[in-house]
Amino acid sequence: MALLDDVLAEAMRDTKASVGLLYLLQPEERVLWLVLAGGVSERLAAPWARIPLDAAFPVADAVRDRHPVWLGSQEDIARRYPRVGIVLPYDFKLTAAPITGHGTVWGGFVLLWPVWHPPGLSTAEQETIDACCRRAAAILHRAADSGHPLHAPDEPRIVPPPHPRDADPVQAAAALSFTARLPVGCCALDLEGRLTFINAAGADLIGAASGSLLGHRPWEVLRWLRDPMFEDRYRAAVVSRQPTSFTVRRPPDAWLLFQLYPDDSGISVHITPADRLPSATAPHLPRPAEPIGATALYHLTHLATALAEAAGVHDVVELAADQIVPAFGPKALALLTVDAGRLCITGHRGCSAELTAHFEATPMTSDTPAVHAVTTGTAAFFPTFADLRKAYPPAVDQDEMASWAFLPLIVSGRPVGTLVLAYGLPRIFPPAERALLTSLAGLIAQALDRARLYDAKNALAHSLQAGLLPRTLPHIPGLETAARYRPAGHGIDIGGDFYDLIPCANGTVVVVIGDVQGHDTSAAALMGQVRTAVRAHATAGSSPGDVLARTNRLLTDLDTGLFASCLIAHLDLPRHRALLATAGHPPPLLRRPSGRAGTLRLSPGLLLGIDADSDYPTTEVPLPPGAVLALYTDGLVETPSTDIDDATTALAHRLTSAQHGNLEALADSLLDHADRSAPRHDDIALLLVRPHR
Questions:
Q1: pLDDT in tens, 107-148
Q2: DSSP 3-state of 620
Q3: Cβ neighbours of residue 429 under 8 Å, at least 6 residues apart?
Q4: How far is it, in rounded angstroms, from Cα 613 to Cα 605?
Q5: What confidence tier does 297 reach under pLDDT thresholds 50, 70, 90?
Q6: Side-chain-facing half-sphere of 578: CA atoms under 13 Å
Q7: Interatomic CA distance for residues 585 and 592, integer angstroms
Q8: Longest pairwise C-alpha distance within the chain
């Protein structure tokens, strides 16, 4: 990982970027993990420590599309990536670049610049970023080849800023004397917001001893600085690297002006008495006794927008764990839902296996804080184990935690479950924090309720589609087969892709592939009718062209308003030939026994369901033993940015070059080629057949 530290540091140094992030795409996962961060604290980077590959984020888009992303203004960020704009409403510029090499996408870089950066990347900056991406890919490739691939750590590593040259002791002493003589206050914060230095005048103005401040974030130890404005200005200074300021009242009536000057190592703060109160500040307004920190508010907003995009229950649980644990302080989290009169663990983070097993499927009649929270709809907070034991005498301290919060998940008066948060240190849970956590539980409850409905519909949809496709292909003597079906991805859409293999008389067999327009129940129903019609006519001995013509008349009579493409191949195994006809379907590929593959150009026919009198010519081609015939739907070759003829040619090249004796492995290879070529937005059906002697 140290080698990657150097790469990230070089990218930031040579491009003068203020913030750098490096993500890894773990094998077998569609998630980007933040492994290195420079120029920013872990707290600020927490919302983006784990990014699903299909999320609307700059680095996810860059990795998915294998193309850099440039965002040149705050307006650009807000328009294209509203979740980023909500959490970081500051002026900065950003690029995200994929780390690719040796045919693999390894992860991505993210670099941020202050607003003074030109409106685009210079040639030198682009060359530096490209070189760093290549270096990172080479490091990751070597690690993988050595049998020790780099894995994402539990927490991202913060790359320290470049060390300044060693200070002269005489100059250091002179600097301390200089700050001591100043009549105005000055202090220094590191990138985490912790106070590292304050002079005597600054301590006097703040009204606190320097010993009580050093090593702490000022807004966490001084009640009158807990206004979100202070933390927000700190965040703005770190992210935008621009000077900023604010005025605040130190009780009882002293007004202070704080001016923040950031750089790559931290923030210098200038503190002076304020002569007058700026018009933007209103001292007569009542102030909350326990204001909520800006970071917590931003994290709450970020979680709200993220949950709005979550689809299934798994997504909700992962988002809740990913956002709450780093952002709101708990050491462990458990999300429990009501199921058949019991409270079951739907997901957890930081809990031991023994603890989850003990509380799994707790009856709703049990006297436990989790059950009490969901049955009464009342949140319960226990600052210490003694408080928990007092309320629930049977409680046993099994997880070595110090504080707990049990938050009911209620939707429209209906109990959904309980969110349990456990903290490693005692926590007093002031009123503002209780309100924040209650709001948090409300967001999760609504998202969880939507997600459970989504999962139910999704399961029903895919069960319907699975029922319309053959469970297994029949065994045909002298013929090897392999089939694949892959849905488009997220969503409850039901695809219209189908395939079939139909044994016929005299050692012949019919293979069929098709695609019905649309992604809903109507498309699925029509797909079932088309497959049934094709099977009925094919078993009657009709030629492929006649089967398509008769099926076309059926679709036209049904007048569904939907169209379908279809390709039929009648394989005459004893005579080593195939008769093919197409209705607007992508052309099949044929790999000859020599290993060379090419596209079969068939006489075209209209899509099914357009014209009842359409004619579908039949074409005969040789099909010697050892040849591979590949039938597929357009999802395998069609992408928005690629010419379909070029994509089909590339697929034929892959069929030629794939050295797989087994058809199952060959089918996987063709799907892998499609995944690596470009993102897929449609269902894919693939059917491979190979005759033997």
A1: 999 999 998 899 899 999 999 999 999 999 999 999 888 888
A2: strand
A3: 381, 383, 403, 405, 437
A4: 11
A5: low
A6: 29
A7: 22
A8: 105
92 pLDDT above the threshold of 50: yes
158, 41 contact by CB (below 8 A): yes
* Cα–Cα distances in angstroms (integers) from residue 262 to residues 158, 240, 242, 488, 576, in the given order: 18, 9, 7, 46, 77
Distances (CA, A) of 360 to 275, 348, 363, 373: 61, 11, 9, 16
Q: Determine phi and psi for 428, rounding to 5 degrees.
A: -85, -15
Cα 4 to the center of its chain, rounded Å = 23
Range 180-187, long-range pairs (CB < 8 A, 24+ positions)? 184/270, 184/271, 184/272, 185/270, 185/271, 185/272, 186/268, 186/269, 186/270, 186/271, 187/213, 187/268, 187/269, 187/271
pLDDT band at residue 288, thresholds of 50, 70 and 90?
very low
CA atoms within 13 A on the CB side of 225: 20
Contact (CB, 8 A) for 419 and 333: yes
pLDDT of residue 678: 58
Within a 13 Å sphere around the CA of 16, how many CA atoms are in the beta-carbon half? 10
Please list the residues that pair with 409 across neighbouring strands. Answer: 417
| Residue 287 pLDDT greater than 50, yes or no | no
Measured in whole angstroms, the distance separating CA 679 from the mean position of its chain's CA atoms is 15
Residue 284 has what pLDDT?
35
Alpha carbons within 13 A on the beta-carbon side of 86:
16
Distance (Å, whole) CA 32 – CA 57: 11
* Ranges 34-38, 158-162, 616-620: which has the least confidence: 158-162
In sequence order, the β-bridge partners of residue 51 are 32
Cβ atoms within 10 Å of 579's Cβ, excluding its own: 19
Question: The tokens 């960020």 sit on which residue?
Answer: 77
DSSP string, 546-602: HHHHHHHHHHHHHT-S--EEEEEEEEETTTTEEEEEEESPPPPEEE-TTS-EEE--P
The answer to whether the Cα torsion of 410, 411, 415, 420 is positive or negative is negative
> What's CA 163's distance to the chain center, in Å?
35
Does 23 have pLDDT greater than 90?
yes
* Collapsed DSSP state (helix, strand, coil) of residue 208: coil
Residue found by looking up tokens 């026994």 in the block: 593
C-alpha dihedral, 458 to 463 to 465 to 468, nearest 10°:
-170
**Phi, psi values for residue 178, rounded to 5°:** -60, -50
